[in-house]
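Lecture notes, unit on protein representations.

Consider one protein chain, 226 amino acids long.
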Amino acid sequence: MSATQAGPRQLLLALDHAESFAREDFLRGPSNAAALTLIDRWPDWPDRIVALTGPEGSGKSHLAAIWAEAAGARVLAAKLLEHGDLPAALATGALVLEDLEFAGLDERALFHLINLAREQGAYVLITSRSPLTTFPVVIRDLASRLRAVPGVALAAPEDALLRSLIVKLAADRQLAVDEALVNYLINRIERSFVGARAAVARLDEEAMRQHRPLTRALAAELFREP
């Protein structure tokens, strides 16, 4: 690595590479095509309240950010639902309710939010790792409302999407990766956006530490099968 290369690379590493949630940075594939289509169709939705479900790292937060930008939506973490100012949360007529899970759920607060959104004609996008219909809620009217929410599921990225993602994440760090390295990684890392991001970051940091180029050999040292 030359001296001219070392300076910018070290600076980039220090900046911690903030992730872009812009529409143009979302990589489309079969695993997320239906969800992306739903976001792009807004406000032509099947209902004013819809849900995106899928495993961690499948792209839900990125899609929610794209929609929030387009709709002028506020974002409320579901874990803060109980303590949130719900009228204020719906003040713009659009809300992302992020990471809704049954564990720790305040059923009354969620019931109130859904009813208030219906009364005001507000749009609500809910993200969750689990389908809302699987929540074993006690409030029967809430259960019926959750069953009525249309949902689109995302899956873990397929090989082609995972390859594109690794290449993009590397390019964001001004790194070049060859096909051999990418093929090696997709067979050994967690098959998710989170896994790909962590793998590229780990490779970047280790290459910097050892003053080595990013190669399949370096990846083999870091991601050996147990």
